[in-house]
Amino acid sequence: MKPQEMRDQSIEELVAKLEESKRELFELKNEMKRSKKLEKPHLLREKKKDIAKFNTIIREKQLANR
């Protein structure tokens, strides 16, 4: 998801997607620990970047609402 698309969403929607991304990252890490190899290892980095984007945009919106 692109940052501009994220900025168009409400804080509640962003928090929900943030939690979903965290859950997916957790599942990927567990899969890696179980099988020692991921089918798509690039997804780990992608999820971490998504989480950082969500956190950044949520913080921007919180500061804008002050």
What is the element layout, followed by pairings?
Layout: H1 3-7, H2 11-35, H3 42-64
Helix pairs in contact: 2-3
Describe the structure.
The relative contact order is 0.18. The two termini are 26 Å apart. The chain is built from 3 helices and no strands. Helix 2 (11-35) packs antiparallel against helix 3 (42-64). Helix content is 80%, strand content 0%. The longest helix has 25 residues, at 11-35. It is mostly helical. Residues 11-38 form a coiled coil. InterPro entries: Ribosomal_uL29 (IPR001854), Ribosomal_uL29_sf (IPR036049). It holds the Pfam family Ribosomal_L29.
Strand residues, percent: under 5%
Residue share in helices? over 70%
Structural class: mainly alpha
How many distinct folded domains?
1
User: Overall 3D geometry?
Assistant: elongated
Radius of gyration: 14 Å
Individual helix count? 3
What is the average of the pLDDT values?
A: 93
Instruction: Give the N-to-C terminal Cα separation.
Output: 26 Å
Task: State the CATH architecture.
Answer: Orthogonal Bundle
Task: Give the total of beta strands.
Answer: 0
Instruction: Indicate the CATH class.
Output: Mainly Alpha
Largest sheet, strands/sense/barrel: none
| Stretches with pLDDT under 50, minimum 5 residues | none
Order of helices and strands: HHH
- Using the coordinates shown, work out and report the CATH topology: Helix Hairpins
InterPro entries: Ribosomal_uL29, Ribosomal_uL29_sf
Keywords: Coiled coil, Ribonucleoprotein, Ribosomal protein
GO molecular function: structural constituent of ribosome
Family: Belongs to the universal ribosomal protein uL29 family.
